[in-house]
Design goal:
TIM Barrel, 13 helices, 37% helix
Length: 335
Amino acid sequence: MPNVLFAQRCVRSCPYCFAGKHMAEPAAGEFISWESLIYLADFLESSGEKKFSILGGEPTLHPEFNAMLVYLLERGFDLNVFTSGIMDNDKLEEAFVFFRDLPPHRLSFVCNLNNPEQTPAPFAEQESVKRFLRHFGSRVMPGFNIYRPDFDLDFLFRTINEFGLRRSLRLGVAHPIPGMKNKHIPLAGMDQIVERLCSFRDRFDRFRVKPVLDCGFPLCRFSDEQLGWLLRATGGHTRFVCAPVIDIGTDLSVWPCFPLSSYHRKSVYDFNSLQEIHKYYQDYHKLVHQEAGGIYEACDECTHREDGFCNGGCIAHLLSRFQDEPPVRLKEILA
């Protein structure tokens, strides 16, 4: 399921923002056009894809956000919207009227939440998020991005209970953006992050919340005991593979993921199907790992990597490392 940008601007300025580089670049259009949306719907449908993941920036900033969701739903797509929850009140009320009776699998949300104490936000923004959660809480999976070692998850368990959110918590690790400076977790800090995450095991179990790990958690940083808990808590659905997710911009440019939005950027028009896009970037990922191995020296002899359970960590770390090297790598990698 590719991620399609509806808007190339945001309502927040998160210090870890993985889309910061892309958001700072000029785009052919600030918002996706109807022409581009219809082309993408045709393109994905012909590729056999009936799921649509929508993000930005903040996708709800699009002036025709609700109308575009209605169009895609009428086309038979199931939609998942990534949002901050900061939404114009009139647009929120309209959305609630339009979508409140839809089955949850047809329209769901991932609401990225920041700890109000560790990442302060204006009172008006906090109230806007609460309004959104009151309207759509049962459709919302909370999301949280880890960018500091002393992160706290307790506010998320309270929020899940208060607003009746889905009992899954999507957790991501902030990665470096090659060529940019953003707050992220360095490789030396991964052990501390894993230890801190697992210190919340009792809360996950007590509140029956499933941890959903986004890409970026190296398998080797977890002990056997921690892995046992994680696999039990997730029903065995945790993966430790860095793979292209495919992001499509408002101008129909395409790249493998936001931290790599400057690397090998192409256009949807260069491909005949979604499968071709995936193969193009999968081949690129393989080339990087063949050239540079994994993010740790131990990756070269790791049995988990040999068995395919982990492929050596996030390549954003590898490409960031190349920034300070002489140009000795293959030109396809340094492009």
